[in-house]
Model the fold of this input.
Amino acid sequence: MIEEVGKVVGLESDRVWVEIIRQSACNTCAAQKGCGHSVLEKIYSGRRHQVLASTDLHLIEGDEVVLGVPENTVFKGSFILYLVPILSIISGMWAAGLMSSSVAINGDLLSAFGALLGISVGGWFIRRHSRINSDNADYLPTVMRRTSDKNDQPIQLL
Done:
């Protein structure tokens, strides 16, 4: 389970809106000066984001909570966001390459058009998948616990 700490900023019936601050591991990496990802992290690090999370807990606005996302959900999302566009571009180029022998158009131009068509189909697929699964509880982070409830132990007042 991948965990992140956030603050409850909105309430719904069985879900809450949680504000998280984007963190980066770039400061601990030895390759940060030569890495393009580190440049992007300098721009986007520290920004606040709001995510919808499912919960069974009774929470109020302002509670600090720990969100959890299963690793397989992250894997599925990464697969869809990274591999689908690459495969769709390659498929579009391959299909256009097959057609180039029967059409009197430059093969490179047709392959470029096939790549554009492929990335368009891949983007459409990702968008459709996102809309279909927008309410799917398997893709939502879950509130694991309040930060003050370490290991789900009762809070002791002094």
The CA atoms of residues 1 and 43 lie 27 Å apart. The beta strands are 2-11, 15-21, 48-54, 64-69, 142-146. Residues 71-100 form the longest helix (30 residues). Residues 152-158 have pLDDT under 50 and may be disordered.
